[in-house]
Amino acid sequence: MSILSGVMKGIFGDKPAKDRKEIWPLVEEINYFQESLSSKSDEGLKENYFDIKKELSNLIENQKKELKLKKISDDDIDDELYEIEKSFLDDKLVEVFAIVKESAKRLMGTTFTVMGQPMTWDMIHYDVQLMGGVVLHKGKISEMKTGEGKTLVSTLPLALNALTGRGVHVVTVNEYLAERDSQWMGHLFNFLGITVGCIFSQMSREKKKEAYSKDITYGVNSRFCFDYLEDNMAYSASEQVQRNHVFAIIDEVDSVLVDEARTPMILSGQADYSSSNQRFNDWRSKIESLIREQNNLVNLIVSEAEELLETDRTKAGVKLLMSLRGSPKNNKLMKIMQKSGIKQLINTTENNFLREKNIQAIDEKLFFSIDEKSEIIDLSEKGRDKLSSSNPEQFVIPDIGEFFHDIDHNEQLSLNDKLAEKEKIQSLHAERSETIHTINQLLRAYSLMQKDVDYIVKDGKVLIVDEHTGRVMHGRRFSSGLHAAIEAKEKVSIERESQTMAQITVQNYFRMYEKLAGMTGTAITEAGEFMQIYNLDVVEIDTNKPIVRKDDEDMIYKTKKEKYNACIEKIQELFSKGQPVLVGTTSVEESETLARLLKRTKVPHNVLNAKQHQREAEIIQRAGQKSSVTISTNMAGRGTDIKLDQEAKNSGGLFILGTGRHESRRIDLQLRGRAGRQGDPGESVFYLSLEDDLMRLFGSERIAKVMDRMGIKDGEVITHSMVTKSIERAQKKVEARNFSIRKHLLEYDDVMNSQRELVYERRNYALHNDDVTDLFNGIIAEYILEIINENLNGSDSLKDAHWEELSADILDTFGIDISSQQSSLSKSNQLVDYILSESKVMVDYKKSTLPDGVFDNFQKVVIFTTIDQKWRQHLYSMDQLRGGIQLRAYGQKNPLIEYKKEGFGMFTEMMHDTNKETIKKIFRTNLVKTSDSSISTSSSVPTNIKTTKENAPDLGFITPPGTNQSSNSGAQRFTKPPSQERQPIVNDRKIGRNEKVTIRKGDDTKIIKWKKAQQLIQSEGWSLDE
Question: In terms of CB atoms within 10 Å, which of 4, 316, 553, 790 comes out highest?
């Protein structure tokens, strides 16, 4: 503890102690109340629970009736009922928790089946588990150490909140845990008559709907998100599966809300073409040649630096820095860097260049430079010449603003010529931007992305390996073309691009819940983020039994080779002693390296990683036996329960040997937590080297100085609490950077989230109401007021409006002629009332010519399909804006503010176009009367939808929405093959939406706004006057 922390603790007290003091009286009340239940029969206990549930139901119903009599809004009624419900649950906490604990006691010794295996119930809630349950009900995070029975803890608040009948969700990190826990804890819930469901990826919508209708629903986090998105693409209320977002408990909350927070959940359908992906194959050979040239250059520079170390260390430092920025993992360079004083020399040289702001002088002597910390690769002028010596302008992106200014002021060009020139500039901008993006992603794929570390290749596919769990992440792709670049690098088939249908971030999905809670053993390191983003407090809960595991200080070596040799020696020692050992590695590559080395010693062992996971259950079951050696990536970390036999306990318990620190302290704590569960003996230690990525990038400078000062020789180890703390500081640096990335993503997605809520609100209103007249009238009124304001020029009177243009717009959209009404309509509301009156006549007529319900159904279909089409096009446009908005920083503008400003303008225009097209389709479409009185929407439902999770902080949209969509189609069909040349987004109104232009048709001329002129030019043969 730091001095400052000690002072703060002395002034304000110890937070865990204060939390414990607040909760403990409730625990005593629960235990006291439970004793009073012992005399009740099983049926009496169940009846007690149902009486409470009935009491709440009657209370809500009666209060709802009283509130409606007060004639307050529905939103206010909901708020009042929520507060009443909340107060009721708080009052019944002690009683319900006592009922659940007593039920668990009565189930002791009963047998049931979980995942096809027989089990015996042997659990009764400890006092610390009761404390954890109270924390969860209050909407906080309960931090309970590994092995403390968090799954059982959750049954307490679940049973309490299930009284509402509105549905409670339990979120897990994988489907296996969801199914296991629903069956395991379901034994207790079923005893009390509480219904339990579980959702899976491959379930039919009927079965999903049934699972969501239960009192408690278990599922994996991504499935809840995808079901929400799919519900908001449904074309009938019966197709929606989710109910309200009331209360969710997230198991391993740090994994879901922190590790998954950089992962937008995307619903996509496959596009019919993939023009840009072919670029990766086209440029691959040139990039491979460039990489070889760079490696040869760096090898030469390293050799020169090695010679200069004896004569001129200043020049040698420059050469070494250049080599480090050209190829950070160059073998010869890494070997030299282990010599005494070399790292300090490089750091001093780099600081000098940074201070003088002259680091570019180093980079320009390379073909490209690599900044590993920021994961940025910059192609130099030398590299550009190498890639395209015949066309040096290929990498110069034109300044559109400057070119547009020159074109607009070129008096020799006609208006049509100016538009044509602008089109050329935009196409050139898009083409060159795409080329630079392709080259940059290929360089990242070759220089930063490591096979068997970041991904594996299996069955001709590139599969991402989760850095936090070590598991393969099926269905996930790196965003922004990086995945396609890796596929090109590995010479496997590049998958086709996908069409984005809908997306949401994990953060914004879970913030929709009225109450959110979580449990994990490693949340305290991210407590600030939980409070800042989710308003979740972290409460530390004591362990049921004291932890006796011994956590040793880190063992640090100079090189990986020395580290691996030390690991093998330690494993042999433990094996001969009979103590089981779990070797935790940071990558698939490292686990396989250790396995090869261990094989030479003839020590029997098991390997568990993303490539070898079929025997996971069997390997974990044996991991706690005497002399067992298990080499695993993080797959054996979170959620893995390794049970020890008596011989293993007698030999010292499970020994955790970590071969590298993860960038997140939570992952290291999870690995350590496999040992010392429920008072078991155990020991843990981490073996590190200065060549490890974390040490090399963030933490080795101070340690390298210590080693140099102490004269540590090759093969010697340094271990000290000061060194361990230094490593933790390095981890904190990375955690702070990752938090910044997650927060950055959220700030941008908040813009989309507010827009998404408005779009989904309109869809759901139409979906759940048979009569959409009020919604349609609202769309009409909103559209009319918009066009009136556009034509009023700031005046309040219709007499000042451009009546001819206003009349033409209304006639084109509604089919209503108002040209003769100018004298009788003087105010905006009068015009709105007139249009609504005339439109009602038209609607009534259309209804009278069709069977009952057909026109109402038709209105709903038009509302759905129009907003769906416009929304998907808007998603693509927003993504394009997001991709280039960072460049605004060069103009001294805040990219986020610019994104919000332009995003709002784009959304406003999208809603305007949506309103107009909706109105136009409904009023201008002729419906034919048939014997079938229904309009089927099944053909409109997307059939090629795919759920994906983009593995990056970007919002991962790739392919622009197609425009070949019929008026009543809710999904992109891509029936017409588009051009193979990827087109830029082009704003059709080059002159400005409300800018006056002159158009001519024969001897007739008109001066009207450009938005009106476009329609006449396209449909009636008018042309712009030059």
Answer: 316
From residue 109, give the alpha-carbon distance in Å to each of 45, 99, 121, 124, 645.
19, 18, 5, 11, 22
Tokens of 298: 């760096």
Query: Among all chains, which residue has been given the structure tokens 């080297």?
Result: 689
Which amino acid, residue 675?
A
Pairwise CA distance, residues 221 & 258, whole Å: 12
Q: Choose among 244, 216, 283: nearest CA to 440.
A: 283
Helix (H) or strand (E) holding 425: helix 415-447
Query: How far apart, in whole angstroms, are the C-alpha atoms of residue 47 and residue 103?
Result: 12
pLDDT digits (tens, 9 = 90+) for 576-587: 999 999 998 888
Q: Do 568 and 702 form a contact (C-beta atoms < 8 A)?
A: no
142 phi/psi in degrees, rounded to 5 = -95, 110
**pLDDT of 635 over the 70 cut:** no
CA-closest candidate to residue 436, choices 401, 394, 477: 394
Compute CA 890 distance to the chain's CA centroid, rounded to the nearest angstrom.
Answer: 28
Token representation of residue 67: 């509130």
Terminal-residue alpha carbon distance, the chain: 78
Q: Kindly state the tokens that stand for 493.
A: 């088939």
**Per-residue pLDDT tens over the stretch 440-456:** 889 989 988 888 878 88
d(CA 316, CA 309): 6
Q: Which amino acid is at 775?
A: L
For 209, the token pair is 């709907």
Name residues whose C-beta falls within 8 Å of residue 262's C-beta, 6 or more positions apart in sequence: 738, 741, 742, 745, 951, 952, 953
**Which pTM value belongs to this model?**
0.72
Q: How many helices and strands, by DSSP H and E, does the chain display?
A: 37, 28
- Helix, strand, coil percentages in the chain from 3-state DSSP, rounded to 5: 55, 10, 30
Indicate the helix (H) or strand (E) that contains 605.
none
**Which residues does 206 contact at the CB level (< 8 Å), separation at least 6?**
none
**CA–CA separation, 387 and 447 (whole Å):** 17
Residue pair 729/700 in contact (Cβ under 8 Å)? The answer is: no
Q: Is-contact 185 151, C-beta < 8 A?
A: yes
The lowest-confidence range among 212-226, 415-429, 714-728 is 714-728
CB atoms within 10 A of CB 246: 17
- Classify residue 558 by its DSSP letter: S
Q: In what order do the strands lie in the sheet with 264-270?
A: 476-477, 945-950, 264-270, 498-505
> Are the C-beta atoms of 253 and 518 separated by less than 8 Å?
yes
Two structure tokens written together for 1018: 């396209």
The residue behind tokens 């019944």 is 92
Alpha-carbon distances, residue 77 vs 68, 137, 582 (angstroms): 8, 23, 56
